[in-house]
Amino acid sequence: MDNTATPGAFVRDLPKAELHVHIEGTLEPELMFEIAERNALPLRFDSIAELRSAYKFQDLQEFLDIYYEGAAVLQTEQDFFDMTLAYLQRAAGDGVRRAEIFFDPQTHADRGIPFPVFLEGIHAAGRHAERELGISTGLILCFLRHLAPEAAMETLETGLAYQEHIIGVGLDSSEVGFPPELFSDVFDRAGAAGLHRVAHAGEEGPPAYVWGALDTLHAERIDHGIRALEDPGLVSRLADNRIPLTVCPFSNVKLGGFTTLQDHVLPTMMDHGLNVSINSDDPAYFGGYVGDNYIETQKALGLSDATMAVIARNSLEATFLPASVKQTRLQELDDYVASHSA
Ligand code: HPA
Ligand code: ZN
Question: Residue 341: its pLDDT value, please?
Fold first, then answer.
């Protein structure tokens, strides 16, 4: 393929989907300060530079502590709109044609922010971006697994009142010690309501958590899933059923899953025939958006443009778009690849 343009240009502009991004994790320090100021809320950091310098994490929990603290500046529908639109502008600039975005209702509702405030803000930004930027969005309501399953069920019941704005449910926050089985009732209820189901599993947790997400939660996609490789039977199950794994390379390195990007198991995952996509997770905290993840991962692992196109194809195939729309997006990808071939 012709790769004579700017290095990375081929993969940055590849038509792709982003399937693993937490909207609260897209809140850049600059916008966090701006929003804190307009809401007259104190931050414990004196400057953007000081805040950024705190973004050093040993593990998932260290990250989550600061991520929840940052999200606490969000108060009004406008705050959620601004954060979401800023993300969608960056994503559209990275070739993203479809973003299926996580949001954490409990992080906001437990601070007294009413459901319609955050949901309408996020949703309105999605509508605006669809009109103006040609990127479509779907929203995935996530349950915080460090909180009680009963609280998740209450969150779902509230969320179902806004079901027209939601495509599915997910499971995030601290993984180890909070196995998927705890949430089987709430995922059953979500499934019965016609929502898609995904779950974080195998990020820090063992392969058993990925089995649990598949068998107990009936997850259609696994978020992260990097530890699945430890269990050959699980790899076969994921490969045979084309269960997508939404991998987040920068996140995995920042949270200690791998020492460097060169150590990432993504190529092994692909060799096993898994549907692997590349995603940003919490780009404001982990050093880059989806395009940066594509570019740096390609460089670090020496992946060909053809392999990167397979990853983009995987992402589009793994979306929850209707089949006809998915087909159109896949055709755009094929046309893009053909037009960039030597
Ligand atoms: N893992 C679990 N929960 C999260 C993450 C993550 O990477 N990002 C935001 N919430
Ligand atoms: Zn995540």
Answer: 84
Instruction: State pLDDT tens for residues 263-307.
Output: 999 999 999 999 999 999 999 999 999 999 999 999 999 999 999
Query: Active-site residues: which are they?
Result: 203
* Beta-carbon neighbours within 5 Å of ion ligand 2: 281
DSSP state of 274: -
Tell which one of 172, 246, 252 to mutate to probe ligand 1, the residue whose CB is within 8 A of the most ligand atoms. Answer: 172
pLDDT per residue as tens digits for the range 67-124: 999 999 999 999 999 999 999 999 999 999 999 999 999 999 999 999 999 999 999 9
Residue 78's alpha-carbon distances to 24, 40, 310, in angstroms, are: 14, 15, 37
Rounded alpha-carbon distances, angstroms, from residue 8 to 251, 299, 303, 308, 312: 20, 9, 12, 11, 14
**CATH value of 9-339 in 3.20.20.140, 3.40.50.1760, 3.30.310.260, 3.20.20.150:** 3.20.20.140
Q: Which atom of ligand 1 is nearest to the CA of 24?
A: 9
| Ligand 1: residue whose CA is nearest its atom 3 | 173
Residue listed under structure tokens 């969000």: 74
Q: How far, in Å, CA of 219 to CA of 210, rounded? A: 9
Q: Give the phi and the psi of residue 199 in degrees, each rounded to 5.
A: -155, 140
